[in-house]
Each structure stands twice: as C-alpha cells, then as structure tokens.
Amino acid sequence: MLIPEYWAEASGKTTRHNKPITIRRFGWSNTSQAEAQNHAEQRVQEAIQATLAGENLARRELKIPYNGSDGVPIREEVLERHPHCVITRNAYGAQCLNTAEVLFADIDFEIPRKPAAYSWTIFFLVIFSFVVGKNLFSFPTAFAIAMATWFISYRIGNLWWSWQQNRHPSAEEQALARVDQFLVSRPLWHVRIYRTPAGLRLLAMHQTFGADDAEVAESFVAFRTDKIYVQMCSNQHCFRARVSPKPWRIGIQAHLKPRPGVWPIDPNRLPDRQQWVAHYERTAQGYAACRFLMEKGSGYVDPVAEQVRAIHDQMCKALEPLPIA
C-alpha cells in the first residue's frame, strides 16, 4: 500500500514508426516534491524505452483517486497516518481508512427484484378489462374499469410479493448464514460484523493478511464481497473502509469542490475545498458510518488488528446510537 504525500507529472517525446509521440507519467513521494518530480521523469523514460521495445502502453495516465486506478497509488488527501493504517479523504469528501494488513470486507445486500411476469400480468389485466369494458359500456366507464383493475391488481400483487419475501430469510440473514458457513471450515477465524447502510462490513480480528493472500480471495468469494471492492483491493494492495458518512446521505447535495476532488488540487481552489469540508464535518457529527452488530468465531484477537479496530470503531462511531449514513 502506498499513499504518497507529494505528486508530480512529467512528459517526454520520442518517435515510433516515424511518428512523434508524447508520453506522460505521474511520480510520487512521501519525502518531497522534488523527489516526486524525479520519480515522474524516471517513469517517463521507462515508458519510452518500453514503447520503443514494442510494448503498447498508454500515452498518458488518468488522474484517478482510487476507483479504476491500476498501477498508480491511491491519490487522495492524507488526513492521518497511523502505524498500520492511513486515513484519507476520498473523491466525494468522506474519510476512508486504508490498511495493508487488516482485512475488511463489504457485503452489499442483494435486493430481490419482482419478476417480469409480475408487471406483464398487471398490464394484460388492465388491457383486457379496458377492451371488455369498452365493448359493454361507454369509453369513460371502460377507462374507469381499467383504472380500478390496475389499482386492485397492483395492491394484490404487492401483497403477494411481500408474502413471498416473508417466506424466505432476509438479505441480512442470508449474508450472516454465508459467514457462518465459511467460519465452520475456518475454526481460527474471528470476525466483527457491522451494519452499513447498504449491507454488512466484516473485520477479521484473528490475524493480519495481505490483499493478495489466497485465503482472502476465498473469503471474498464465500462472503460475496462487492466485486469492485475486491478488484480495488488487488489493484492497491490494501483493504479499505469508509469511516464517515456519504455526503448525500446526510443532506449535503453540493459536491466536494473543486470537481473532481483528485489530490493534489490547485492551491487557489483550496479555500473552496476547506469551506465544503468544514460544513461536511459539522453535519457528519450526528451520524455513524456503520454500527457494530456482533462477533463470530474463535475470539482470538491479533494486536495489529485490534489497533486498527479501535481506530475504525472510533472514527465510524460504530458503538454510538446514531443513524448510519
């Protein structure tokens, strides 16, 4: 995991197949801006050499903070550095905990969708009632019959759908059952489970992991972890958890300024960003990012995982009786 303090960009020109090309690359450093610039120029020369050797490389890297970034470190404002995790502000303004050692897994609940036959049945009932009503009565009467048919069939259909869903375990119960099933074959595992607005968050407490470990991949499959999150863990060699609310869930519709909020930003725009952040942080005080539900497994606690857990729970307000957002 690498989340640099300093960023730079360099460019270089070369010729390939008798055509001039320009290659641009980013550089980064935790030490100084000059070191970041030197790194960028070094990467440009490496890309030029690879291009001349026949590799088909992108001419320019995209300025992406996290999602979609591949091969380039996380490009976000660093808020805090701890021994085993780094807190950053993501592109839409929320705070995120990044760790190369402690496994987090987000499980988004699968929302069941009504089958297409449900809507088509209502549609044909309405058309049929209108045709029959028009043949037997006047047009206004037929229209009224069709509307009544739609209202009644819609209500009955919803009652039927609710009855069907109540016959099966809820999305949360299904997710917890998958966790239980996985833990049966992993007696050493110990996980803390949190409720998020969209599902569950799991935190492994019994040992540390690398994002590319085989057992991590197995757990992601078993838990049905969000696929984008799984890919980003692999790309960035770290795990990640949002530890403050999403702005739109706490009534903030204005976007983080300037847009896009990719770090670093123009110093002239910093006051706009600081004003937005101050408003966001004041509003976020009344919300939690997740809520602790339960623990499952062996009960063993790795000291590194415990350090990260303490920071996570405090920042998320996971033990406070606040609405989650």
From TrEMBL:
Keyword annotations of the record: Membrane, Transmembrane, Transmembrane helix
Ranges annotated as spanning the membrane: 116-133, 139-157
Name of the protein described by the UniProt record: Transmembrane protein
Lineage: Bacteria, Pseudomonadati, Pseudomonadota, Betaproteobacteria, Burkholderiales
